[in-house]
Amino acid sequence: VHEIEVSGNGAFGRDDVEAAVRSILAGRRWRFFPADNFLAVSPAHFAAELRARFPQAAEVRVEKRFPDTIRVDIAGRALWGVYCERRAADVPPRSCFYLDRRGTAYESLAAFSGWLLPIIFGGETPALGRAAVPEATLAFFNDADRALAGVGGGLLALYLSTTTPGDARLALAEGWQLLVTATRPVAEWRGILATVLEKEIGPRQSELEYVDLRFGSKVFFKYR
What we know:
Layout: E1 3-8, H1 14-25, E2 28-29, E3 33-34, H2 43-53, E4 57-65, E5 69-76, E6 79-85, E7 95-100, E8 104-109, E9 119-122, E10 130-131, H3 135-147, E11 155-160, E12 167-172, E13 177-181, H4 186-201, E14 208-215, E15 218-223
Parallel strand pairs: 1-5, 6-9, 9-11, 13-14
Antiparallel strand pairs: 2-3, 4-5, 6-7, 7-8, 8-10, 11-12, 12-13, 14-15
Helix pairs in contact: 1-2
């Protein structure tokens, strides 16, 4: 192999990808062949190696072009938000990661603060390049975000329960929270919430600590 061609969506430096390819080409393959022997190059092996080295890559395609060229097409992930490991609400997050739109953690964050991106808090530490949360959880967040537009200042974060599977807390900008069952469609409790806010809570909405919507039409709420 003498030539390395790199293409993609601009999320990666060509020199970085080429350097990674050349490091894979160093040494030997199957203990006998030089790793840069064109016949010994396995596109699948190269793609797997590059995914491990670039977890922020959504797609990696490698092909050989006779007689001496490797072509790499590598595309970056589309940012959705942030995932943070947090074992309890009264302790700070232990580690945070950028999430793509499929729920994959692809880059760790040394420090994270603020609410510019949607945040999901959970109790596990994900491996880079692996799913941190199911796509269904992201879909639930997005549905809840749309349903709660204008309510409580808008949705900021989702806390997944570490003790009761299916339970979740939605943190709103006004400082109060919704306790919901994440496996229930948002439409099932959005109407109930609207009724409670209008007829029972009224102008005291900003004084809420939480509204519990986990029990169907039976709603509990508490003021701070």
